[in-house]
Amino acid sequence: METMKAIACTKYGPPDVLRLVEYARPVPREDEVLIKIYATSVTNSDIFIRGSQIPLRFRVPMRLMLGITRPRHDIIGEVLSGEVVKVGAKIRRFKAGDQVFGLTGFSLGAYADYKCMKEDDSKQGCIALKPDNISHEEATSAAYGGLLALQYLDKAGVKPNHKVLVYGASGTSGTIAVQYAKHLGADVTGVCSARNAGFVTALGADRVLDYTDEESLSQVERYDVVLDAVGKRRTSALKEACRRALADGGTFVSIDDGSLELSSQRLEKVRGLVEARRITPINDRCYPFDQIVAAHRYVELGHKRGNVAVTVNTTA
């Protein structure tokens, strides 16, 4: 039996519950591809699943979905970038040697050397060819942040000359949302901490508001679109002011408004934007696989710029 290394999460708790172990290497079915994972990332969803820090009113339904007393899947992780090394007999979209990126959906399992994925989109994940001008580590940022940013900005119907505000402009989805909104011709205001103001301006934001500074409240304008890129659990006086500052017919959208759509078609759109250099995925830090506990601790602090990637295997 061939084995692989993986990060096991066999109980809920702090980052230290994660353990580097050996598992049996998966074998693809006829409708699956086997992907050798070169990079994954630590997302806020991973932190949520590992820590199970669920508000009391949501605890029962969320535990039914994630696992009652422990995570339903020993191997968590939802973002991957890697290489197809084997394909099942019914596979048509991919071949061995293809470089791919994507999300694993409810199946999780990206914290491992290998992962079997279906080529068709479902709640179990989606994959597409990786942009050829970025690394696998950068591709994890493009996959997760790109899917979120494009889903909600497209839903809001951003048009040229729209005034768009991105709350949480320095995060994984926020950094791509700023760039994508500029690509669409919008006038973009980014909201972040003062520490990240220059960083967000360099991404293309026309102006930046500091959510920790009360003076920012007086600088709020009227916006056609407000994107909450940090989620509804994080609130501030400035976020509420921005929500109330919508222009007539304006739209407020949050990344917590419904489930992330696992769409290979949207991944392909992200790939095109990256290859055309319309958006650049941003990684704050990149950790080796055996330091994933440290990566979780860092993301849990809530101060990252862009994505935090993890190198699982090095390319030849």
Which helices and strands, and how do they pair?
Blueprint: E1 3-9, E2 18-24, E3 32-41, H1 44-51, H2 59-66, E4 79-87, E5 99-103, E6 114-118, E7 126-129, H3 136-156, E8 163-167, H4 172-183, E9 187-192, H5 197-202, E10 207-210, E11 223-228, H6 237-244, E12 246-254, H7 264-275, E13 283-288, H8 292-301, E14 307-311
Parallel strand pairs: 8-9, 8-11, 9-10, 11-12, 13-14
Antiparallel strand pairs: 1-2, 3-4, 3-6, 3-14, 4-5, 5-7
Helix pairs in contact: 3-4, 3-7
Question: In words, what does this structure look like?
Answer:
- With 316 residues, the protein is an alpha/beta fold.
- The chain folds into 2 domains: 158 residues, Medium-chain alcohol dehydrogenases, catalytic domain (Quinone Oxidoreductase, Chain A, domain 1), CATH 3.90.180.10; 110 residues, Rossmann fold (3-Layer(aba) Sandwich).
- Helix content is 27%, strand content 28%.
- The chain contains 8 helices and 14 strands.
- Strands 3, 4, 5, 6, 7, 13 and 14 form a 7-stranded mixed beta sheet that branches.
- It is globular and about 65 Å long.
Describe the structure in brief.
The protein has 316 residues and is α/β, with parallel strands linked by helices. The chain is 27% helix and 28% strand.
| Corresponding CATH architecture of the largest domain | Alpha-Beta Complex
User: What number of domains?
Assistant: 2
Low-confidence stretches: none
Binned, the helix content reads 25-40%
How many DSSP H or I helices? 8
If you consult CATH, what is the topology of the largest domain? Quinone Oxidoreductase, Chain A, domain 1
Mean pLDDT: 93
Q: By CATH's scheme, which homologous superfamily of the largest domain applies? A: Medium-chain alcohol dehydrogenases, catalytic domain
Please trace the helix and strand order, writing H or E for each element: EEEHHEEEEHEHEHEEHEHEHE
Q: Please give the radius of gyration in angstroms.
A: 19 Å
Main structural class? alpha/beta
Inertia-based shape: globular
Distance between the termini: 24 Å
The CATH class of the largest domain: Alpha Beta
Portion of residues in beta strands equals 25-35%
Sheet having the most strands: 7 strands, mixed
> How many E strands?
14
